[in-house]
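Note to self: keep these together.
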Amino acid sequence: MLAKIAYYCFIYPLSLLPMRLLHVYSTCCFFVVYYIIRYRRDVVSDNMKRTLSSRYSEAEQQQFAKEFYRHFCDLIFEGIKHFSASEASLKKRLAMGNLDLLDSFYKQGKSAVIVSSHYGNWELPTMISNSFFTHQAAGLYTPIKDPFLDKQVRDSRSKFGFQLISAYDMRSLIKHLSKDLIALVILADQRPKRKQLALRASFLGIETTVSTGAEKIASRFDLPVLGGTIKKVKRGVYNTEFTVLAEHPKELEPNQLTLRITAFMEQQILDNPPYWLWTHKRFKHD
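Structure:
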């Protein structure tokens, strides 16, 4: 009930406002979240200290943290805007480069896996990827516990043709792969919840568990794997580019692809740290 009230009385009406005004609200939100509530500032500071100290000074880390919170608040309001935004308005906020790499696999009659991380505005490219891809765009999705909120989020993410496949339903994934040529988007930076998908490896300089899920899917069906980078060009505007990480995963040694994916994600984060999701307690048990 509370989720319904929040959605209809606050979230959806707010989404109807122009993005420029929402970014003004985001600036106000930043001052509250960063200076007053101090939301997870200890988590962000600890994460950055543990992962960035070998490359960046303490002063630089503090500046990154402040930039991160500005971006984090932008993400909140950009995410709200997604509930009512048109496809045309979202396409103005995103450019996709070197799509020819992905198209080349479509011409070969192959589905593909695209790996990325919680970096930049990761929701925006997935929402409208079907407008850019020759493949049918799809992604693994972890259901939200609240049924009403889960439906609203699923409807918002899929309203422009992006297909959501439950991360717990391998049969559905196999059905999609047998029916269409799909580009399956996987965010691979989170700590794996299932032990059978966990590998001990270095990520951002910390010995931790990383997910082998993308490798297992790609290897099982011998799907080419591309890495997707997201760059924040300016407030509310992003671009993406692709890099081929493996054309024939079955030819690689076990875990080799997972290590490539981890290194790929790591490099983007280290090159421009403020735009990763630093509030996540990724290294809590490491």
